[in-house]
Amino acid sequence: LYSSLKVQSFVARIHTSFLYRYSLVPIVLDKTGLGERAYDIYSRLLKDRIVCVMGPVTDEMSSLVLAQLLFLQSEDKRAPIHLYINSPGGVVTSGLAIYDTMQYIRPPIHTWCVGQACSMASLLLSAGSPGHRYALPHARIMVHQPSGAAQGMGFSFC
Q1: CA 48 to chain CA centroid, nearest Å
Q2: Which one is catalytic: 9, 17, 126, 144?
Q3: Which GO terms describe its biological process (predicted)?
Q4: Is there a single domain that holds both residue 33 and residue 96?
Q5: Which one is catalytic: 119, 122, 138, 156?
Q6: Could you confirm whether 144 is annotated as catalytic?
Q7: 115 with 71, same domain?
Q8: Could you tell me the residue range of the domain that residue 13 belongs to?
């Protein structure tokens, strides 16, 4: 009985977390000559070549951003992609996967800091195409020395 209650409690916490995180995604209608189509807001933004990096950089978020970038490249190799960033940073390997993909694909990437771009997110902001890296007036960008097992100042290793 005790283990069953622990499992139920765990499932309830996951369900509550999921609802808090994903229940407020608006649905928008797009009218065409063939009628109306409903999109979640992120899918509609993707149609306009807008990708959002919002929240901590995690493996899951990285996977979604990679898929969106690769999809947009397959749609049009020349049209710019707009990457909006509001992130405190996160997992280095996940961020580097996004960074590498940004460098690999052909379309120019315009990066926009809205809110904050800290740590790994600041690296993603700087990975935008030259001349197309932007920060809105009240945005905050935080860059810090790399941390790891090595000692000394980060610039000493570059």
Answers
A1: 16
A2: 144
A3: protein quality control for misfolded or incompletely synthesized proteins
A4: no
A5: 119
A6: yes
A7: yes
A8: 1-41
